[in-house]
Amino acid sequence: QDPQFSQYMFARLPVNPAYAGSNEAICASLLYRNQWTGFGGEPKTSLFAFDMPVEALHGGIGLSFYASDRLGAQSNMNVRGAYAYRTELGSGHIAIGVDAGYQQQSINGGDLVFNDLNDNLIPSGKVGGGTFDMSAGAYYNSDKLYIGIASTHLTGGNINYDNVRTSLARHYWVMAGYSAELSPSLTLKPSLVAKSDAVSTQIVLNANLFINNRFWVGGGYRYQDAVVLMAGLELIPNLKLGYS
Question: pLDDT (tens digit, 9 = 90+) per residue, 16-31?
Fold first, then answer.
């Protein structure tokens, strides 16, 4: 039920609230995913994430917003505000974070194709509903390493609308990454993420090579699913653009 992004390493906050403030800077990310372009009804997802450190709160705050998550006749929207308490641990920092917000889901019956036109259980127009949503996680990061564990949809709420009922399943996430300086101009950043809803599990391995800390090329493998290629560049100081 959680949207999937190949460039997960640039959007850690939406799946782990403990990430908030870990860069010790004001950060924002905007991602757009269009799967199976041109097929019609293909999955499309837009994501905005923002976080910043707040010294007075001994940690960081953040906001994640799935503005548009669509698959065929179904649409999802999720907005959550996050807080992470951060403290020093060895050469890095460890954080515990929580977020809370709202999950909405809707179905447009006008986009459905079905055999029985008189089936009253199928909505004829757009119907929707929502429920309270909450996540929690832990996150450690240093100059070279990060490790995080988290769970989304902890409250497992039910969304009821018209004759449709959806139950949110708890999702479990593990993420890790490392930065290895190969030379003054080359840095290799391998990473992995594993996610599960306790029914199915998916593992993704990735590595990006950063050149002069301005350009990067890389690739990944989503186990038994896909091979991913990606590249990006720094357009101007502190503004990066990537494509996968």
Answer: 999 999 999 999 999 9
Which tokens in the block code for residue 179?
């930065």
d(CA 20, CA 49): 10
Of the CA atoms within 13 Å of residue 124, those in its CB half-sphere come to: 5
Sign for the CA dihedral angle at 233, 17, 69, 196 comes to: positive
Amino acid letter for position 161: Y
Beta bridge partners of 129: 105
Cα–Cα dist 88/22, whole Å: 11
Reported as half-sphere exposure (CB side, CA atoms, 13 A), residue 168 has a value of 28
Say which DSSP state 43 is in.
-
Enter the tokens of residue 183: 């030379």
* Vertex 21 angle, CA 77 and 56, to 5°: 115
Residue corresponding to tokens 């009821």: 160
pTM, whole model, 2 decimals?
0.91
Measured CA angle at 207 (ends 206, 211), to 5 deg: 150
Helix (H, G, I), strand (E, B) or coil at 237: coil
